[in-house]
Amino acid sequence: xxxxxxxxxxxxxxxxxxxxxxxxxxxxxxxxxxxxxxxxxxxxxxxxxxxxxxxxxxxxxxxxxxxxxxxxxxxxxxxxxxxxxxxxxxxxxxxxxxxxxxxxxxxxxxxxxxxxxxxxxxxxxxxxxxxxxxxxxxxxxxxxxxxxxxxxxxxxxxxxxxxxx
Length: 165
Known about the structure:
By secondary structure, the chain is of the alpha+beta class. About 15% of the residues lie in helices and about 40% in strands. The protein has helices at about 120-125, 140-145, 150-160; strands at about 15-20, 25-30, 40-45, 55-60, 65-70, 70-75, 80-85, 90, 100, 110-115, 145-150.
């Protein structure tokens, strides 16, 4: 990989591209793979209460690290459900079925570190107007980024926690 030199940067609380979807989820893109020479990307996610971030899925290329800044995060890791409060780091290794949701009464905000970077481009595509959250088209789109989707495992989780998806 050739590192792209972009020089030092300071990003303030309103910097970075922020995309908001129909459920009120905000993805704020802070560091893209191109900025880090492919090593990682950094995205801040904000979810409203009882909102599922994504269907149950796995990545074949990346590990994800979710650091909770505010609120209470619910996470499915394989067959285990865990809950993380502010200050908690959750590791989601590649090839691990997972998803996450806002398990609190107020917004949850977290930093998502993706290593190596690149998967943030899928988040961008999903955040664009007309983003592909359709059960018919999402699996093919996700596959372009080395991801698999499991809608069958998603719906019981949505029902059990009364989530918006």
